[in-house]
Write a structure and sequence with these properties.
There is one protein chain. With 121 residues, the protein is mostly beta strands. The chain has one domain: F0F1 ATP synthase delta/epsilon subunit, N-terminal (ATP Synthase, domain 1), CATH 2.60.15.10. It is 15% helix and 50% strand. The strands form two sheets. It has a five-stranded mixed beta sheet, with no helix packed on it. A five-stranded antiparallel beta sheet has the order 4-3-6-7-10. β1 and β2 form a beta hairpin. The longest helix is centred in the last third of the chain and has 12 residues. The radius of gyration is 14 Å and the shape is globular.
Length: 121
């Protein structure tokens, strides 16, 4: 287990122990888990999934940020984060995240892709 701490500029979103977190790194998705080598990476817009038993317990869209993994702690600093559990192709355009991303066509396209066809379920 690792302690996952997700922070936005406004507040701590959540902090809890998880088996694994899959994050959209700048060079591709990666899994943060116990005994992983320490590292720091930038994050691109994409899906963040909290996994256990090879299935997503929770999923989020993140618009980018940074991640630092050291020991049993994974700290994720995100610009914007949106839980996917209540979103679908009919309501995601009403979210604050969608409105904040207007003008960033790459991030908006990724947000739509994550809503319509999430990588991790």
């Amino acid at each position: 287990m690792i302690e996952l701490k997700v922070v936005s500029p406004q507040k701590v979103i959540f902090q809890k122990e998880v088996e694994m977190a899959v994050l959209p790194g700048a060079e591709g998705d990666f899994a943060a888990m116990q005994d992983h080598s320490p590292f720091i990476s930038s994050l691109r817009p994409g899906q963040m999934a909290i996994m256990s038993n090879n299935k997503a317990d929770e999923s989020f869209f993140i618009s980018g940020g940074l991640v630092m993994l050291k020991g049993k702690v994974c700290e994720v600093l995100v610009d914007q984060i949106e839980p996917l559990k209540d979103l679908n192709k009919d309501n995601y355009k009403q979210t604050k995240t969608y409105q904040d991303l207007e003008g960033n066509e790459t991030a908006l396209k990724t947000f739509e892709q994550v809503i319509n066809t999430p990588s991790y379920k």
